[in-house]
């Protein structure tokens, strides 16, 4: 493999570990835990892994007589910077435990376990991947591990390779499934431990014990660099409004963090839209008023950030999308008839007639292109794929219409020209920031120590993250502690609670207190690219979200 000069230098970077993991480790068990809600139901569903104590590691004095331990690792879901370092941390951790320990990677995500596709991760193989972005070392996938048949099939290969533990690196759903797997293997005395690791650029897997998911730091730094560059371009040419959609599926953590970093004129927060029950028109009016106010001051340019999941948080759109999902069920007679029609306008007309009066009016009011995007193929769960909907264009076109009305009414004088962007894939495989490089390595190492301690059903947890890495607190949190019951596909299911942006939280409150000033004045900040070498004040800063939350 040919590697860049930066990658070569980064290969030599030794990620930092918390002090407690640098030598022999002592395990401290805390109080027994309870799930965040629905304790009775969760306890009944997880009789073997419910209520376990919190675990923290401290520097120890004695080392235990250890046997080699074979471990399997799986990367699950969307890529996030630092995944390779989690694997490096597990590898170094189990090799320290015993040099004859082995690490196997299941290829292409959870499906690799079921289909018995694996590779042994050796020191030489791993070397080129240390401190790099991407999940290409073993690949990732979105197969859901939730059926007994899958667990049994997986057990066959685990037993064949004498694997005693599996680490699942994933988001909330993958870690929920890791816990189901842990519970099942305990219930049949399979002798296989399962440990989870918190991954997702979306930043929505967090709680008291998991301060942030890995990848969020690097991805938001990459997007902030790009947004800053665009802000500077906008402030130089002074002729465009840039509408930028940002990844993050449901939660708006990415948009909020990027706003805190770059101080744009507008940043929509989906959670606020839902809370205030804003209509699409309310959002358009809010944006148009800001555009007009800037134009009145001679500023016909600006930057607006739009979270990817916005559309589903607008109450009327949510209802419309649900109705469309029901009408366009894959394999239904109507879907077949609908797909056979060539004429888009006729297709939309046909659909609009099948909707309730309110949704039909909303559907008919949408620009044709967006209405068509809402009818595209559903995902494997029958849901509309929000990342395919060009919300930034929808809003840009609607703001333009609104401004034309305002012009006629004499309340707006200005020029409105737009540029559209979508940032998502640009940040998911970036070389991890020093923060993510250290955090991920520490998470992997923590997982190895949890395995060495015989634990199962835990998620690796590394806290105190706004302090230098040496002071981070490593340990384990029972996955059941983060669970509640939620309605999924018509059934009550135990799931890890998704962390949306809290409107009473410090990051949002800070943003809300500044946004009026950022809207009318031009206060852009240009963060520039991630720095890997240089002063700590530039290279080792965690996200503003984390700093405000922990202040
Ligand atoms: P995870 O939740 O699996 O980490 O994925 C996050 C994400 O990057 C979202 O932000 C985005 O909506 C989605 O993945 C895109 O999925 P895909 O990679 O399948 O296009």
Summed up:
The chain is built from 23 helices and 15 strands.
Low-confidence stretches: none
Largest sheet: 9 strands, mixed
| Helix percentage range | 40-55%
CATH class of the largest domain: Alpha Beta
CATH topology of the largest domain: Rossmann fold
Task: Give me the CATH architecture of the largest domain, please.
Answer: 3-Layer(aba) Sandwich
Query: What's the shape?
Result: globular
The strands making up the biggest β-sheet line up spatially as 1-2-13-12-7-6-3-4-5
| DSSP strand tally | 15
Radius of gyration: 25 Å
Query: Can you tell me the number of structural domains?
Result: 2
Through-space gap between termini: 44 Å
Bound molecules: 1,6-di-O-phosphono-beta-D-fructofuranose
Number of helices: 23
Structural class: alpha/beta
What is the strand content?
A: 15-25%
What is the residue-averaged pLDDT? 94
Give structural notes.
With 551 residues, the protein is α/β, with parallel strands linked by helices. The chain folds into two domains: 17-60 and 70-215 and 432-488, 3-Layer(aba) Sandwich (Rossmann fold); 217-425 and 505-526, Rossmann fold, CATH 3.40.50.460. Helix content is 44%, strand content 16%. The strands form three sheets. The chain has a nine-stranded mixed sheet, sandwiched between helices. Helix 3 (83-97) links the parallel strand 3 (70-75) and strand 4 (102-106). The radius of gyration is 25 Å and the shape is globular. The site of 1,6-di-O-phosphono-beta-D-fructofuranose has 13 residues, from loops. 1,6-di-O-phosphono-beta-D-fructofuranose (FBP) is lined by residues 77-78, 80, 171, 200-202, 247-249, 308, 387, 428.
